[in-house]
Amino acid sequence: MASPVLEARSLTKTFGDFTAVNGISFALQPGEILGVLGPNGAGKTTTMHMLLGLITPTSGTISMFGMDLETHREAILQQVNFSSTYMSMPQSLTVEENLWVVARLYGLPDVQRKIDDIVKKLEMGEFRHKVTRKLSSGQMTRLTLAKAFLTEPKILFLDEPTASLDPDIAHKIRALLKDEQRTTGLSVLYTSHNMREMEEMSDRIIFLQKGNLVAEGTAAQIVSRFGQADLEDVFLKLARES
Ligand SMILES: Nc1ncnc2c1ncn2[C@@H]1O[C@H](COP(=O)(O)OP(=O)(O)OP(=O)(O)O)[C@@H](O)[C@H]1O
User: Fold this and answer.
1) Which of 14, 162, 187, 216 is the most exposed place for a label (fewest CB within 10 A)?
2) What pLDDT sits at residue 231?
3) How confident is the model over 201-215, as pLDDT tens digits?
4) Which ranges carry the ABC transporter domain (predicted)?
5) Tell me, what DSSP letter sits at residue 92?
């Protein structure tokens, strides 16, 4: 098997005497979509923020592309990107201006073609000249996804990428992710509370509960291991134990 593009080893994050993430280890393989599942407060976002270098782990190590995040931060972060509903972008710029800012920050070549391409893929034509402040939440989600795709990352981190999208657009985003995975070998780590989406999208799933990694495998393996009918029932069982 090829080397993983990302490896987290014994990752722990404490806030004061509260342990949000408790010694979890996992790997992301090249071209893999890895779903991170868990009830509210399980430690998903904290984990993602450590992987993005936004917060420092209390202990444990993170490596990507064979490099340690602590010592090769810039080289790694150039090759990854993320999208989250909670991220903010300059509000007074238009959608297209915001994408230009990102392109310039990353020093991308051939910017207008790349922007036109992503605007088309994410069906953003109708609001590409709209001021960001005036976007609906679904439009904002698409802008943050466009920002993430624009830099052509090797790893994409997505925190609830389809949460505020209508079913039609959510379906198209899922298709786009699968397409990018197939054609470019993109690796994706993402969180979602939509169990059907998790089952459909993820090659593998890791399940967090109270900061611990309690299950890992394909959706079918996890369902079978917990003796439940589907992933939703596994989720309910573990969430109610929390
Ligand atoms: N800066 C912080 N200071 C103190 N506690 C924090 C901080 N950030 C997160 N936590 C706590 O860590 C735990 C894990 O939070 P986290 O946001 O990672 O959960 P999550 O799995 O992403 O949940 P959700 O599904 O609600 O987004 C929660 O109990 C949260 O209150």
Assistant:
1) 14
2) 92
3) 999 999 999 999 999
4) 6-235
5) T
ipTM of the prediction greater than 0.90, yes or no: yes
What pLDDT score was predicted for residue 1?
65
What residue's CA is closest to ligand 1, atom 25? 40
- Ligand 1 pocket test: which of 40, 49, 235 has the largest number of ligand atoms within 8 Å of its C-beta? 40
pLDDT of residue 164: 81
H or E element: which one contains 10?
strand 6-15
Residue nearest to atom 3 of ligand 1 (CA): 15
Which of 31, 27, 43, 20 is CA-nearest to residue 191?
Answer: 43
The count of other CB atoms within 10 Å of the CB of residue 66 is 11
Judged against a pLDDT cut of 80, whether residue 236 lies above it is answered with yes
Q: Whose CA is nearest to atom 24 of ligand 1?
A: 40
Residue nearest to atom 8 of ligand 1 (CA): 46
Atom number, ligand 1, closest to the C-alpha of residue 38: 21
CA 52 from centroid of its chain's CA atoms = 10
